[in-house]
Every structure is written in C-alpha cells, then in structure tokens.
Write a structure and sequence with these properties.
alpha/beta, 7 strands, 269 residues, Glycerol-3-phosphate (1)-acyltransferase, 7-stranded mixed β-sheet, globular, 2 domains
Length: 269
C-alpha cells in the first residue's frame, strides 16, 4: 500500500504540474488530463519497479534453502500483490479481519478458486508466508522475491516433499517468524466446487497450537474475465476461527471434515 500511495501522489503531482505550467487549468476542457495522467503514471511506475527488481530477483538461487525470511523481500511481495490487485480493476471488501491480533501467529486456510487468492490475503495481512506450488518460484521477478520472503513450496505429486513443506511451516510458526497461509484443498478448484480438504494440512495447527483462521474468498475467479473494462468486486471474509481448545481432542481428519462443512455451508448461502 505504501508504494501505491507514493505512485498516486506522483501521478497527482505530475498532472497538476502539466495543468499549471502549461496554463491548461484556465480552460475546462483540459480537465481530462489528470484522469489520464494519474493512472498512466501509476502503471508506468509499477512497470519501472518490476524492471528494477528483475535483475536482483534473477540472482536469487531458488534452490537454496532460506533459513530466515527477508523482511525487505516480504515487504516487496506484499506491495507487488497490492498493486497487482489494484491494477486489475478489483475492489476487495474484507470482513472480520479485526478479530486478528497483531501479535501471535495463525494458520490461515482459504478456499482456492483463482491465482489472485493469495494476493488478496497478502494485501491485507502482514507477516504472512504462503505455501505455494513449486512452479510459482520460476515466475520472473515474483519467483525470486517470494523465495527470499520465505514462501514454502510443495510438490503435490511427492508425499515426502509435502511432509517437508509441512515441517517448514511448523518451524515458521514455532519460531514466531510469520503466520502461514495454505489452501487445504491442495489445488485450485476450476469449477468453483469445494474440493476435499487434505487432513495432513492441519498438522500445522496441531503441532504449533496456532488458531485456524478460515477465510472464504469469492469472485476472484472473475478478475481475469472482467479485466480491464469491468470492475470486479471481491469478498474476503473470515468465517470461522478454530482455537486449540476446540481442535486439541480432534484428529486432523475430523478437523478437515468439520471445517469443510463450515466452508460448504457458507459458500452455498
């Protein structure tokens, strides 16, 4: 959000300078200039920022294990995600996030219907590390940044890799480095139907004692369809928080079953 405000201020300053120094402010029909200059400046600066970050991200060895996440990289990832959501002509309405304390770590789970889902979460929650598929670390600029930020990759076809990823997530919470965001479905639902939850995912909560925050995301699947001419309204709601005293006596399969039912009921409403 910080970079977005900075870009906006530069756009306003640029359009105001053009209007003033060219003497256009005296004639009403030149008032379209700020409408064009401000968003154009926003987009231009975003592109320049990515170009500047490209060589640095390229030098990151994504195969090298990150023991301590970079706060600078985490900040840049959050800013890039926020700017991307804004530039996609999307308005996100958040609900229930005031329940989250700024202190302490959480296991945040969400239904997965679009690649924008983690971006929407990262735009709202600080100190958040996502579990993501391995291929995302090969994306130019973003791949290197999310690796430095401590994102944990998982190979859905490799059970051993999956166990290792869960272990890293547990260490991240236990070391008070960040909260963890993961989709218990394991992959994106292409038909918007809620997929079965993988019970193993909830080992993160069982072995850390972190509250399980259930976030429901709606309409992110429409962003690429509506862009650029139609604005997309996205809803990101915390629908339930399961605390340790509720899940301690449950198995991971029971947790998965109970939370899947909560999501299914909410998304069908």
């Amino acid at each position: 959000m910080i970079l977005a405000i900075f870009y906006l201020l530069l756009g306003v300053a640029g359009s105001a300078s053009i209007m003033y120094f060219c003497g256009l402010y005296t004639t009403w029909y030149w008032y379209w200039i700020p409408i064009v200059v401000i968003p154009a400046t926003y987009v231009l600066l975003f592109g320049i920022s990515l170009a500047i970050l490209f060589p640095f991200a390229k030098m990151v060895d994504i195969d090298k294990e990150i023991k301590k996440p970079s706060k600078i990289a985490a900040f840049l990832v959050r800013e890039i995600d926020f700017l991307t959501v804004q530039l996609s002509n999307t308005k996100v309405k958040y609900k229930g996030f005031k329940q989250l304390s700024k202190k302490g770590e959480y296991m945040i789970v969400y239904n997965h219907i679009s690649n924008f889902d983690p971006m929407v979460l990262m735009s709202k929650i600080k100190r958040l590390i996502c579990i993501t598929k391995r291929g995302n670390k090969k994306i130019p600029v973003v791949g290197g940044m999310i690796h430095k930020a401590g994102y944990i990759t998982i190979d859905r076809e490799n059970n051993e890799e999956g166990i290792k990823a869960i272990g890293k997530a547990i260490d991240t919470i236990n070391n008070h480095q960040a909260s963890i965001a993961v989709s218990p479905e394991g992959t994106r639902s292409k038909d918007l139907q809620l997929l079965p939850f993988h019970p193993g995912t909830f080992q993160i909560a069982k072995r850390t004692g972190a509250p399980i925050v259930c976030v429901a995301v709606k309409n992110t699947n429409m962003i690429h369809k509506n862009f650029p001419f139609k604005r997309t309204k996205v809803y990101c709601d915390i629908i339930y928080i399961m605390y340790p005293e509720e899940y301690n006596e449950l198995s991971t399969a029971q947790i998965a079953h109970r939370l899947h039912g909560i999501y299914d009921q909410y998304l069908r409403a």
